[in-house]
Input
Amino acid sequence: MNGVTRRGLLVGIGAAGGAGAMYAAMGALGLAPDSQEKAFTPPQASDFSLKGKASAKVVILGAGVSGLVAAYELGKAGYDCTLLEARARAGGRNLTLRGGDRLEEANGPSQDVKFGEGVYFNAGPGRIAPWMVTMDYCRELGIPIETFVNNNAAAYVHTNGQTVRARTARADMYGYVAELLAKVTHAGALDRKLTKDDQERLLEFLRRFGDLGPKLDYEGSTRRGFTKFPDIGTGTPLDGPQTLRDVLAAGVGRSITNDFGYDQATPMFQPVGGMDAIVNALVEKVGADRIRTGVQINRITNLQDGVEVTWNGGSLKADYCIAALPPHVLARIPHNLGAEITTALRTPQPVAAGKIGLEYGRRWWELEDRIYGGVTETDLDITHIWYPSHGYHARTGLIVGYYASEKNAELYGALTPEDRKRRALTQGKKIHGEKYRQDVLSSVSIAWERQAHIGGGWVRWPDFDSSFTLLQRPAGRVYFTGDWLTHLIAWQAGAMESARSAVTQLHQRVLQSP
Amino acid sequence: MNGVTRRGLLVGIGAAGGAGAMYAAMGALGLAPDSQEKAFTPPQASDFSLKGKASAKVVILGAGVSGLVAAYELGKAGYDCTLLEARARAGGRNLTLRGGDRLEEANGPSQDVKFGEGVYFNAGPGRIAPWMVTMDYCRELGIPIETFVNNNAAAYVHTNGQTVRARTARADMYGYVAELLAKVTHAGALDRKLTKDDQERLLEFLRRFGDLGPKLDYEGSTRRGFTKFPDIGTGTPLDGPQTLRDVLAAGVGRSITNDFGYDQATPMFQPVGGMDAIVNALVEKVGADRIRTGVQINRITNLQDGVEVTWNGGSLKADYCIAALPPHVLARIPHNLGAEITTALRTPQPVAAGKIGLEYGRRWWELEDRIYGGVTETDLDITHIWYPSHGYHARTGLIVGYYASEKNAELYGALTPEDRKRRALTQGKKIHGEKYRQDVLSSVSIAWERQAHIGGGWVRWPDFDSSFTLLQRPAGRVYFTGDWLTHLIAWQAGAMESARSAVTQLHQRVLQSP
Output
């Protein structure tokens, strides 16, 4: 099983040892998924009445998605939850910026968001795969969703200084792959592998797959696109194709496979109006009065009969604690949970990630490029350009001018907001031309590694080792949650699944306690 | 250039002679698209004031999309247009059915539409490609659009009695194609075709494309899907892969390439709330008072100084006429335009096409199959199943239970509405199981070949021959329009482009008239 998805490579052990190593590691650790096969059952009030128990008091550190989901699920059974959040707002990395917002940055200038009415920028998560639990929460919480276009044949691929439409790159690559395999098949190279019947079936597929001519040649295809699309006439197909050598040299193949993975496959989804609709709905369900913002924990003490949490100017005692913070943030808070916990928390490494939102006065990508949503893939430091999957045909709009991680993110993060914008525009111009620098109304950029109390876009585990398994279980009365404790790192779904796991464990414990 | 798209095969000369023949034919006929390269300039009132001319009176036969667009564009310059429509409503094949509507059928029972609030069924066109002029009209007319999911990795492919997810079919086919080509490349079979460097680049692509193992074997992939998707754990991948022989025998390859064509590529779009938003907006712009419904023309007379159109109980004289009817309908109306015109009108052959809308009391395809929009491809007579790309997570919803053409459409068309439904449910059950026949609230089916004054889903030209070119030009003062006169047959964009062409010709003539 070769679990190579782009995201997997970015965020997982894959970066170090290849995804195969990850799965091997999992098996060796006894983390076979069968043991988690059971569907989640939310706690409910009747669980207590049946067993003659009472719900407990829980302090939740961090009001990100994981902390909020934990509070929401525990709240269904009447648990008395308090969320302590160091930042000014709940939501954590689920952050949607709008006009009037102010984005602070650790050791950097703050940015005033000046977007016009109705324009928003999902600075954190921006898309949801349909199989993810995030969709279930959208349904349960009544959050309207709409399609997020993650794959667009009309978007561009920019590699080695060349720009082509994704449809063109794909048609040429598939055309040549089909031609090469069809011809060696025809020449008998597969005679010992495949029966004649199977060869015929294969050839039938390859003809369709590559849009091959009668002699199994790839001579171009209308799939590549047109300089003028058909109307009354047949249209004017693009010149081409390029030679196989040029197609290979352009290195566009990487982009073609972007949506093959189970996490990036078409279609994907987004909440209407901004990803923080999820945060807002959870906050409403949990109760805003249960969330205390601006509270920076300075000690976690596990006690015989509870947990005490202290901060500058206050403290709180509860029966249990859910620590829903990033591991590298949590590791810096003094506690009495033992050195092994600290070591485990220090194991996953934060990864830099950043995005810029560019608000334009006109939607030139729709008007001139006929790009409605989707992603342009590049080998530039901006990595991707996202076009909006909503507000089609509006007067203005926002595109994501870079979505970079690791070194590229650090490069942008180290710049001032003005220089980030300047660089992003210079890079984007290589693809879209001078119009990319025109009609820019405003911009906001985020460097997650520079966000206070967050300190990274996500984490990378050098190994999903014993630290990973250790933190799946409580240390005394303290539970740990977050996307970083799952195999859905960098997805909200991970935060949610982790919260569900902790909630299930905590609730079972309360029900079984003497 | 091998212009093989599925739609092209369905509707064009491709069915007879291969698409290559079509392009050759075009070239031979002097229809090189360069001559139509000029963008459309709508007529405007100032055209007349500058030239000292006056606009003219135009009678338009048929208030389908083509007739409406012609009236709309001519109206911009003050032309006095009257539309005569034989049916009870404007819109033609752009037909959206809702609760309370009644669908009549020639020589068949009528159907009362019983859909619940907010449920609709696009009985005619259902999707728009982003490059099409239809998008421009949506923008110009202020019609909100949303993504239409035309490709869904979670939808199914059903062939030869087997059902697999599209993602699984694709992963296996790509995996084996990559493995086969990688291994023959590795074995030196391409040494005379490709340099070693190019072979390395090709292998790099194939590894990604097929998710191959280190020894270039395809051993399955997480891209195939999971019985349990990753969460805290790594998930449980689907068993597999199937053998190459089984994959080839399943014949799933045809479905994989469905969205490769320029007309079906991801993403596609639809008006919010139903395709007839386009009709409604055009009717409003044109003025409902200019449209006379229930008018069945029985003669068209081209005169020295105008055109006279008569019907049972009335007649109308205008300076020009735009005949925006299907050719097979127009051919049956007596006229004095000459035998050559009649012969030309009889050349394109109407094609049967039908759809059924199945309204369900619960969206089981989302709840249980995690299918949010998209199309399941089958080798059954239902051909396709469409899942809705809107109303996600609503309580009820409508899926298109068949979208068939040619023989399959005729098969369904010949049944009673009740039998169409029964048959569609029986077929769909082969894919989705017994739940497909449960919770059905209501259904409506259309057989376009049985719709009065329309008589087909679209037409097929045996050849884009001299009849096609003849009808691009007026016969006397009568102009012809419709998708059938374009290379966008069966697309609204064809109707619109054709209308624009006639409007341009007519307006030039009026401006140049003495």
Residues 166-186 of chain B form the longest helix (21 residues).
